[in-house]
């Protein structure tokens, strides 16, 4: 701003950039570094603006602002500071600071210049007023300006009956669509129509009767009958004797603004309705999620959970009842395991053709399916059977493992909408996750187990390809799952002269690293782009206790609960490979807990990095004494720092000890 003077109150360090920026913007800058000096200068009236840092020698910027304000100097203050102390901005504004800016590089300097320019814009200019006495517009020029004005202008004569129009300009004609000859001589009320507000008309009439100016927004109609919103101002015009001569009207078409306001109002009402609906949903599902979480934590018997879940659903406001069922692999019928709020009891079975359509759709798609009472037919599981209006069927799925279906009946028209359905989907996954956890725990703790040996005679199997690349039999030691379906597989190969060079040339291998090497063999890890089928078995609630492979195929030993369907395990491999066969199935009455089972229990507690640190350390002999390797060497093999390796290892060791001391702890 040309000729404007700015007082910069700032320590010498860091002031150059500010002075340069303000000077480039046309300010005459004077700098001082103490509050006392700044007050003395600011109160002289010579400065148009004060720019101050908060931290000053012997004082602070808030005290400076207070002193300037108390002096009534009337100079605006901009605080430009590095401080981030809590409460400083509030204190600054309370004590007379007009703008408060945090220093943040060149962008904040630009903002400072802009703000200083803005607060100084009220400084009176020294430009002289010009003599315009010889440039008054003529009567013809004024008339032309009125006729060509962009807003409608009309004049009525109060001396004539009914205050008729005696003049309208071109804009008035364009707004209304009426030719001038049709408008003159008529009262402007002919623009009114069925949508015109009578109270607004009365307000205009009252102002005219009192010879007062009035501004209203009135619904008027064009000559072709289309409505428009007219922002109308009517004002009395007096003659030289002070008598009422005319009424002048100024008309502005504000239809677009009114439409925007209407849409904004509708949107606000819609958002308010959505918010109320969302609040109802959250109130309902928060209680549901909390109660079901507690059921899954407190109950270790999977046969009890379905009944408790159904009772909770039936007791939740907005829901009429619920059931959990599973399709029998033997009969193909839907068997109800638990129900509450409807006449159907646990143990009832139904042919799928007599169940609601939503049940069949959910089974086929393994996704949510819903329907309302308006589209329901007669049947024991239809919404009407529970006194509800809508049925939502939720698949209970964990990975590839299916634990049945959850049916929820909504009792209100606004229940189970799209938002609530998403939450119910999460409830279904939570229930399936809980059942899977109990199933896995049962495998690891039961005294009865089925040991299944599966053979895969297919050289394209991932384990077989790895064995072929190594040139000898490999033993699978464990798996760490990664993101995007990838995983890291750990192997051991026995014998001298092991070569791992061919591994990285395999299409399925993304990377390979050697974990340990001895005279007796080697351990290595490969990252594969897609998880092999054996990693899917955990989703089916079973444990792989041993796996070996040669170039011709693989052999896996799998342990499962006695009641587990062996066919589903075989189907996991048959979906990928040829030559899959069940070599043996042995049920044991009692057994000792295997290392593989304990490892599986610990594995659920470890993060990806913790697993990798623990396995790499063990395979390299880190836990032997004397240690053949130190932490730095292992960290280098893992591609991480020594400190990070020890952090992950300590966390893994702590979880390992916890699992040993208290195997049932979370």
UniProtKB/TrEMBL annotation:
Domain Response regulatory: 5-118
UniProt cross-references to InterPro entries, sorted A to Z: BAT_GAF/HTH-assoc, CheY-like_superfamily, GAF, GAF-like_dom_sf, HTH_bacterioopsin, PAC, PAS, PAS-assoc_C
Highest rank taxon of the organism: Archaea
Start and end residues of each PAC domain: 214-266
Domain called PAS: residue spans: 138-211
Stretches for region Disordered: 362-384
PROSITE patterns per record: PAC, PAS, RESPONSE_REGULATORY
Keywords: Chromophore, Flavoprotein, FMN, Kinase, Transcription, Transcription regulation, Transferase
PANTHER family named among the record's database cross-references: PROTEIN TWIN LOV 1
Protein name according to UniProt: Bacterio-opsin activator domain-containing protein
Gene source species: Halorubrum miltondacostae
